[in-house]
Amino acid sequence: MTRSLKKGPYVDEKLLKKISGKKPDDAGVIKTWARASQISPEMVGFAFGVHNGKDHIEVRVTEEMVGHRLGEFSPSKKFVRHGGKMQKEIEQKKKESEIAAAKAAKVVTDTKK
């Protein structure tokens, strides 16, 4: 559910205070824990260190990001991958074919010399 239009977007006050009166070039990385804060047009060009629960991930704000939340650009969960035994077999075959292709290419270059 979206936020009420009469309330306006949620932008953390401390975050706005940190960027007020500064230029994006000389501000450096601004650390924040406010993942729920929406990106406003004043934030464009700044670099934020958004906390993901473990460490701060650097997010450079561009014009396309306005209206989104800071937490969207700092993933808090690590995707391992899908698959199990079958996926490992497929990857092993792919790796073997790459090795065979590399050996064949090496033999071809050695015979040309």
TrEMBL record:
<keyword id="KW-0694">RNA-binding</keyword>
<dbReference type="GO" id="GO:0000028">
    <property type="term" value="P:ribosomal small subunit assembly"/>
</dbReference>
<keyword id="KW-0687">Ribonucleoprotein</keyword>
<dbReference type="GO" id="GO:0015935">
    <property type="term" value="C:small ribosomal subunit"/>
</dbReference>
<dbReference type="Pfam" id="PF00203">
    <property type="entry name" value="Ribosomal_S19"/>
</dbReference>
<comment type="similarity">
    <text>Belongs to the universal ribosomal protein uS19 family.</text>
</comment>
<keyword id="KW-0699">rRNA-binding</keyword>
<comment type="function">
    <text>Protein S19 forms a complex with S13 that binds strongly to the 16S ribosomal RNA.</text>
</comment>
<dbReference type="InterPro" id="IPR023575">
    <property type="entry name" value="Ribosomal_uS19_SF"/>
</dbReference>
<dbReference type="GO" id="GO:0006412">
    <property type="term" value="P:translation"/>
</dbReference>
<dbReference type="InterPro" id="IPR005732">
    <property type="entry name" value="Ribosomal_uS19_bac-type"/>
</dbReference>
<dbReference type="InterPro" id="IPR002222">
    <property type="entry name" value="Ribosomal_uS19"/>
</dbReference>
<dbReference type="GO" id="GO:0005737">
    <property type="term" value="C:cytoplasm"/>
</dbReference>
<dbReference type="GO" id="GO:0019843">
    <property type="term" value="F:rRNA binding"/>
</dbReference>
<dbReference type="GO" id="GO:0003735">
    <property type="term" value="F:structural constituent of ribosome"/>
</dbReference>
<protein>
    <recommendedName>
        <fullName>Small ribosomal subunit protein uS19</fullName>
    </recommendedName>
</protein>
<dbReference type="InterPro" id="IPR020934">
    <property type="entry name" value="Ribosomal_uS19_CS"/>
</dbReference>
<keyword id="KW-0689">Ribosomal protein</keyword>
